[in-house]
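comment on this one:
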Amino acid sequence: MTALFCDHTADFLRKVCYNGAYNADRVTGGIIVEAKYRRVVLKLSGESLAGDQGFGINPAVVEDIATQIKKVRDHGIDMAIVVGGGNIWRGLAGSAKGMDRTTADYMGMMATVMNALALQDALEKQDVDTRVQSAIEMRQVAEPYIRRRAIRHMEKGRVVIFGAGTGNPYFSTDTTAALRAAEIEADVILMAKKGTDGIYDSDPNKNPNAKRFETLAYIDILNKGLAVMDATATSLCMDNKIPMVVFSMDDYANIARASFGEPIGTTVGGEGV
């Protein structure tokens, strides 16, 4: 493991010693220890921004999430975020009630941009430089998604939030996370879930004997029909060999723990799986 000696404070190390290809997850006695991940994609569901109220945006919850994201960014890890819109609107729900599926999905994309702007506001109030990039052009509120620009933002220490999904109907924000992770060459997708601390062989809320998997292969998710992410997103991660960590959002500190490589939740498609 590579290490660099420096007697300065952690903040100085982050600003001066970080060279864009090197990350630190802790500073002890002047030694920087290499982090497990260099660049991560955090997938947040829309419901996670609603908190216990279940609908809309809870500013206090968004602030707590932003605090954890700041902690990750302060340790030199590139952070990109894909946020869902289920706290405001779900395209499938609208379609099930007779609405045109394409129209309903575009409404869902608008909801993700609203969530992205709320998260950007919370991050910038904590002095975290943030950019929102939208797959649907809306220049007054967000940048258009441009891969090279997104990577450059992260290299400059900014957090990038991807809104409006892929910009296409019929594709979930899980698929967006897989696609963006492949495009920006992320080391891992961090899948934050509410109400569960990993992947189980059955619903732990209904089956007290449900077994949690520590590690899992993507093909097992498809074969077993595990409801982690949709088949399109699963196949995309499997084809591009992108590992994923599924963990609980009930404790917001898990965002930082997962980003630092602590063994929490379920790891899918990792080394040796």
